[in-house]
Amino acid sequence: MTEAVAASATPTAADWSAAVSTIRELAPTGRVLLICHVNPDGDALGSMLGFALGLRRLGVTRLQATFAGEFEIPEPYAGLPGLDLLVPEEQAWRDPDLLLIFDVAAESRLGGLVDRLAAARATVVLDHHASNTGFGTVKLVDGAAAATSVVAEGLLQRLDVPLDVEIAECLYVALATDTGSFRFDMTTPQVHEMAARLIATGLRPGDISRRIFDSRPFGAMKLFADVLGRAQLDPTAAAGHGMVWTYATLEDLARHGQRPYVLDALIDPVRCVAEVDVSMVVKELADGVWAVSMRSKGAVDVSAVAVALGGGGHRLAAGFTGHGSPGDVAVAVRDKLDNHLI
Are 102 and 34 in contact (CB under 8 A)? Predict the structure, then answer.
C-alpha cells in the first residue's frame, strides 16, 4: 500500500542517506535499470540519462535505461548524451538488482514496466510531483522542486559525482523543459544557481534552447494552425476565471505527416490566452482515449482537478487520460474547476 506524498514534502536527511547507501550497495556489481514515464518529456529523459551517465562515471557498467510504450525519442531530444544506454521495454531486465525511477508520479505511469517494481531488490524513486503516490523502497520526492533534475543533481552531489558537460546537458534540458525555459513560477534563485553550475561545464544554452524550444517541422506549424483554429473559449468556467481548450486527433497528425511528440508544444500558445486562467489541450491516443494537458495561471489547482480525474501533476500544470469525445473531456474538467479554486 502506498501513501500520497504531501505537496510540501521534501526528502529528509534519512531519505538522502538511504538512497546513497542503496546505490552504493547494489550498483557497483548489480544490474541497474533506470525507468522514466511513458511518452517521456525533457525532464523525464534528461534526468534519467543524466543520472545514468553519473553512475557510469562512478564505474557502474551494468546499466539500462528505458520507458514503456513505443520506443521513439522525440526529435528535440534525439541528440541527448547517454542515448546509447536506452533499450526498448521488452529488452529491459525483468528482475534488476536496483531500479531507479524518474519523474513518475504514480505506478500507472510506468506502463508495461510496472512489474519491475516487485521484481527489483530495491527501488529508488526520484520525482517532483506533489501528487506522487508514495510508491518505491526509497522515496526522493520533492514537491517544491522545479524539475526532477533538481532531485537527480542533489543525489549525484551526495554520491560525489562531479558534473561533466554530458551530464550537465541532460540535466539542463530537463530543467529548462519543466521551467518553460525559466519562465514558470517554480523558477527560483536556486534554479538559476543550478543552471549556472550546469552552464559552467561548457554548455551552449543558446544551442540547446533552439533545439528544444525553437525548432519544429513546417508540417507541425500547419498542424498547429488547424488545431488552434478550433479552440473554444469558455469565460464563465472556473467561477468566471475562464477556460480555453482545443483538441488534436490522430487524423490531424496523419494529414500533416507529423509524429505525436510535436503536440507537446501546443499547450504554450493556448495558455497565452489573456481572458482565461485555465488552458487545456486534448490529444487523441486511440479511439475515444485522450491525453489531456492542463495549465493554470494561479486561480485553479489543476493538479487537484487531474487527480480527481485519475491523473496528477502540479498546481499549475497537470494532466490525465480522458475518455469519450473531446467535448466529454472538456465537460468533465469544467465540472471540477469550481471545486479547486486556490
Answer: yes
Task: Write out the residue range of the structural domain in which residue 150 sits.
Answer: 13-213
Q: Is residue 70 part of a domain?
A: yes
201 and 239 fall within a common domain: no
In a domain, 47, yes or no: yes
What CATH number is attached to the domain comprising 310? 3.10.310.30
Q: Which CATH number belongs to the domain containing residue 51 in this structure?
A: 3.90.1640.10
DSSP state letters, 196-231: HHHHTTT--HHHHHHHHHS---HHHHHHHHHHHHT-
Separation between Cα atoms, residue 223 and residue 263, nearest integer Å: 9
Hey, how many other C-beta atoms are within 10 angstroms of the C-beta on 12?
11
* Whether the model pTM is above 0.85: yes
Query: What percentage of the chain exceeds 70 in pLDDT?
Result: 98
Task: Give 42's pLDDT tier (boundaries 50, 70, 90).
Answer: very high
